[in-house]
Amino acid sequence: MNIFRLLGDLSHLASILILLHKIQTTRSCRGISFKTQALYVTVFVTRYLDIFTDWVSLYNFTMKIFFIASTCYILYLMKMKYRPTHDPSIDTFRVEYLLGPCALLALLFHYRFTVLEVLWSFSIFLESVAILPQLFMLQRTGEAETITTHYLAALGAYRALYIPNWIYRYFTESGQIDPIAVTAGLVQTALYLDFFYVYFTKVLQGQKFELPA
Amino acid sequence: TGTERSKDEL
């Protein structure tokens, strides 16, 4: 564990808490992509199957359980409790275009050809693009509530912080590298660059998040 | 030196 990893994980944790806070206080899931949240549940469930086979640490175990449980709870809030506030007609990204290629990539690139390892690989690839339905929705509506942009910024920061973490680990753990996670992580971070640009130049200057028409 | 997944990462 290094400082980048810790800050990255805390940022991930914060992003979920911000999202829950947004839904509970506004009593609405307006502006949130159900598809992205459903993809995250898929990511966490397929990746964290190793809670049954490998014990890493209490920290690791608790975080895994939290990520699965909290994201499932968000799906419940969106589908049941605040269902009328969710508008499927603007959440139109075709997730099959993500699931198919990620499954194929996982079959091609993995560390061992076992169910657990291929699913892990699948989850890494899927996580890298899971935000696309959300960003697509943002692009479509052209604006977002400030709290939603804080959620996205925290999520993007989590991914960005994993990059210095890998660099640090490469030098401190005798050249150890995880090419699947690193490649997918770089792609994932790159997807946030446009968003970050608007977030830093507008939202943090106190303006509303609005995309140029 | 090697390539493997880091099991402790989330």
TrEMBL record, chain A:
GO MF, one example: ER retention sequence binding
Statement: the UniProt record of this protein carries the keyword Phosphoprotein: no
Heme found in the keyword field: no
TM annotation in the entry: 55-76, 97-113, 119-138, 150-168, 180-200
Gene Ontology cellular-component annotations: endoplasmic reticulum membrane
PROSITE patterns assigned: ER_LUMEN_RECEPTOR_2
Membrane topology of this protein: Multi-pass membrane protein
Leader sequence segment: none
GO biological process terms held by the UniProt record: protein retention in ER lumen; protein transport; vesicle-mediated transport
Subcellular location as annotated: Endoplasmic reticulum membrane
Entry keyword set: Endoplasmic reticulum, ER-Golgi transport, Membrane, Protein transport, Receptor, Transmembrane, Transmembrane helix, Transport
Pfam family, one: ER_lumen_recept
Family designation: Belongs to the ERD2 family.
Listed name of the protein: ER lumen protein-retaining receptor
Lineage: Eukaryota, Fungi, Dikarya, Basidiomycota, Agaricomycotina
Gene transcribed to yield this protein: CsMn42
